[in-house]
Amino acid sequence: MAKLAKVSPITVSRALRKPDAVSPELRQRIDAAVHKLAYVPNLAASRLASSRSHSVGVIVPTLYNVIFAEYLRALHEVFLNSGFQVVVVNSRYSQREEEQAIRTLLGQRVEAIIIVGVDHTPMSRHLLTQSKIPVIETFELADNPIHINIGLSQAKAGRDATQFLIDLGHRKIGFVVGQQDIRAAARLSGYKEAMEKAGPEYQPMVTSIPQHSSIALGSTLLVSLVNHNEIPEALFCNDDNLAMGAIMKCREIGIKVPQDISILGFHDLEFAASASPSLSTVSTRLYEIGKLAAEAAVNELSGKRLDVSTQIDVGYEIFARQSTGKNKR
After folding, report:
1. Structural domain for 163, as ranges
2. Given CB 3.0 to 4.6 Å as the disulfide criterion, which of 22, 93, 147, 189 pairs with 26?
3. Residues 229, 169 share a domain
């Protein structure tokens, strides 16, 4: 390639590593040679030579739920603009698989690890602590963060979401959930706490089917409530997918939203505001969590330390839209 571009091998290497280090004319000749030869850099050799992988590991509990789409988009945008590749691994909601994912990523010499959740096996925590690389735990707030922690209190969000429905005058409030991971369990705990605090006339109604969350599952859960003659005045859904499925099934079987039942989601996914009726939901700022996590990692890797605490509470916001209203029963 150096011969084709009529430059030295050292100049080619410099241009590929730092394009701004060579003149525009040389860069144009080298880019033309790269294109003509379909050249692909040997990353393994580059890592050995520089002791840098220029890659960051990201561990998510599933690749099937759109909940993580905005989060991953933010991570990719920040890291790619900073010269890092993102390696995403699916732990499938298993702490044991998460542990294996950590071993795999460390074996690939990633320069930082960003992980969804704060609950890990003792060995996972040991591996992350001893890695001596930036570790960012996200989505939840940890009592004892490993390094940097960016998220929100899932239990408090669940409690406040339930209180929002109570304040609308609803007493018979249901909670539906699919697979109960740790974050779902925290929201459920917050829901139960708010219901108990409201008084003895507020009885929890929890319906769960241990499947991956989806719109279809939301419809199934709504049917389950109807079949058991337990149609609540309001329904708090563990996420927006379930809420959307419940709304669609209500429309199909003649239950009016919000006149007959108020439905509240969680996460404020992209479709929530444009749904019909628009979905009331709890915004968990998924994109912001990903962006802050990536920026924190880049700052750590560039030698800059965060000027704030190692724990960042991004909070949440309840958006009251058309799917919820005052109790009219």
Report:
1. 154-283
2. 22
3. yes
Instruction: Using 70 as the pLDDT threshold, list the residues of the chain that sit under it.
Output: 1-2, 4-5, 12, 17-18, 26, 34, 36-37, 39-51, 304-309
Bridge partner residues of 115 (DSSP) = 59, 137
pLDDT tens for each residue of 13-44: 777 766 777 788 867 877 887 676 676 665 55
Does 101 fall in a domain? yes
Q: Tell me: do 162 and 92 sit in the same domain.
A: no
Query: DSSP letters of 277-325?
Result: SPPBEEE--HHHHHHHHHHHHHHHHTTPPPSS-SEEE---EEE--TT--
Structure tokens at 188: 């459920």
For 166, 204, 280, 309, 327, the CA distances from 169, given in Å and listed in that order, are: 5, 15, 16, 39, 5
Please give the helix or strand (H or E) that residue 87 lies within, else none: strand 85-90
Q: What is the CATH number of the domain that holds 246?
A: 3.40.50.2300
3-state secondary structure of 232: coil
**Rounded CA gap, 87 and 136, in Å?**
15
